[in-house]
Amino acid sequence: MNTAAKLGSYVLGLAVVFGGALGAGKAVGPVGAPPAEDHSAMAAPTASAGHGEHVTQQAKTDTPGGLQVSQNGYTLDPLTTTIKPGEPTDYRFTVTGPDGKPVTDYQVQHDKKLHFIVVSRDLGSFQHLHPTEAGDGVWSVKLTLPSAGTYRAFADFSPAGGSALTLGTDVLVAGDYEPKALPQVSRTATVDGYTVTLDGDLTPGQASKLTLKVTKDGKPINDLQPYLGAYGHLVALRSKDLAYLHVHPDGEPGDGKTKAGPEIVFYAEVPSTGDYRLFLDFQHEGEVRTADFTLGTGERQPAIPAPTPSEHRDDHGH
């Protein structure tokens, strides 16, 4: 009896984000391209030798990272409820585990046990923070939100013995609020005299190569400094719902082949068509800077069905 061959499909994660710990997600590259490390639920949980050895894969899921406050028994629990615009706040939170107790044992991912991303809902404000452990599973971070409105906070982490996760929660700042339109699509960003250009396109359902080139005063920057174990960190957020993907670059400092600029190469997989906001963190001359972009996607590539057994029958029907 003929049996149709079954095909699996990858569904995203923020890779960019956009899901797993900012701290990371992985995506499978196209034929001939190395897979990237990305610990997000928006990316396929696949790694190749030489690129994923220091990143824990997040279990494959149909839900992109950062859209849920609770997943796989782990819950992001904010302890701070009041934030005023423009005022530094000691923001505290815990991550509780399947046993209902605050998690105290984490895997180190890119030099940190937990990465914390805070963005405004209109994606105009972005902060990549690194909380400190205050004891008993409580995390603390100095957080200043520039204006009133709704923000989304992402905790990107890997619990000891578990898969990478990205959990998200809303942070509300009281006051008059007028949302801004999404910044227009752009492949060039300027920050503190640096110019970053983006080459490549996002194609839903497959790993997409993105090359970001850093220059200053028209000259390429060839001495980027490692930041959290890499020459750059890329976070992507789907504009309509802030699904999260964090992708780390191809290669790493000290591997004997990865250059310290001017180009940083990423492989990111997004789950759907639409607009995405991309935020690149890079370090030069001792300071971390963030370049931001808006990028649209192409259409999802159709899957090619595998041949059915009937296509390989001989003259006797076998």
Question: Can you walk through the features of this model?
Answer:
There is one protein chain. With 318 residues, the protein is an all-beta fold. It contains no helices and 20 strands. It has a five-stranded antiparallel beta sheet with strand order 3-4-5-9-8, with no helix packed on it. Strands 12, 13, 14, 15 and 18 form a five-stranded antiparallel beta sheet that branches. It is globular.
Oligomer: single chain
**Main sheet?**
5 strands, antiparallel
* Number of helical segments with 4 or more residues: 0
First-last Cα distance: 10 Å
Class of secondary structure makeup: mainly beta
- Spatially, the strands of the biggest sheet line up as 3-4-5-9-8
Low-pLDDT segments, ≥5 res: 1-60, 299-318
Q: Give, in order, the helices and strands.
A: EEEEEEEEEEEEEEEEEEEE
Radius of gyration: 20 Å
Principal-axes shape call: globular
- Mean pLDDT across residues: 79
- How helical, in percent, are the residues? under 10%
Strand content: 35-45%
Tally the beta strands: 20
